[in-house]
Please model this.
Amino acid sequence: EPHMADDDWLATEFSRLAALSPKQRQREIDALPADKRAAIKAQNQKVQRGLRDVNTVLGCLEPDEADPDASVPTVAVLAALSCCPSLSPIGGEAEPDDLQPLEAALMEHCSE
Model:
C-alpha cells in the first residue's frame, strides 16, 4: 500500500509539473525533498526513453507517400520494434528476413 501512494503522488506531481513553465518547474523540483526529486528524475528518464522508442517506431513505419493507407505487414512492425533504443540490449536491430519465421508463427497463432 505505501508504494501505491508513492505511485499516485508521482503521477499527480508529474502531471502538475508538466503544466508549469520550465523555470517554474525547476523551482518546484528544487524545493522538493531529495527522494522526491530523485523519483521525478527517474520518471522523466522513463518518459524520455519511451518517447525515443515511439519516435523510432514511427520513423520506421512512416507511410509511403504514394499509398499512405497501405496496410503494414507484421514483419515491418516487428522490425520497427527491434530498432527501439530500449530494446537494443536484447540483441540490436533485426533484419526483416530474420523475422519471417516469427511473423509466420504469430500469424498462425492469431488465426487459431
